Amino acid sequence: MRLDKYLKVSRIIKRRTIAKEASENGRVSINGKVAKPGTDVAVGDIIEIRFGDKLFKAEITYVAEHMSKDGAKEMYRMIEE
């Protein structure tokens, strides 16, 4: 699954356009490497997102095309926030 879509479906970022902008501007990395919006994500990958001075870090635990609002938090495990 594309990174920008994963961020939206998992509700880490609410809108896909914002997820795309964040990754285009170099604020998102996967496994320590800066990622583009079309980068594929897989279970076990570590995502880091910089929101200003905050760092969001999580491990991908599940990948799905569609997810309910309640199930979205099961798609990742927080490492740091």
UniProtKB/TrEMBL annotation:
Keywords in alphabetical order: Protein biosynthesis, RNA-binding, rRNA-binding, Stress response, tRNA-binding
Superkingdom as given in the UniProt entry: Bacteria
Coiled-coil segments on the chain, per record: none
SUPFAM superfamilies, per database record: Alpha-L RNA-binding motif
CDD domains: S4 (cd00165)
RNA-binding S4 domain segment(s): 1-61
Subunit structure: Associates with stalled 50S ribosomal subunits. Binds to RqcH, 23S rRNA and the P-site tRNA. Does not require RqcH for association with 50S subunits.
Family: Belongs to the RqcP family.
Protein task: Key component of the ribosome quality control system (RQC), a ribosome-associated complex that mediates the extraction of incompletely synthesized nascent chains from stalled ribosomes and their subsequent degradation. RqcH recruits Ala-charged tRNA, and with RqcP directs the elongation of stalled nascent chains on 50S ribosomal subunits, leading to non-templated C-terminal alanine extensions (Ala tail). The Ala tail promotes nascent chain degradation. RqcP is associated with the translocation-like movement of the peptidyl-tRNA from the A-site into the P-site.
Name assigned to this protein: RQC P-site tRNA stabilizing factor
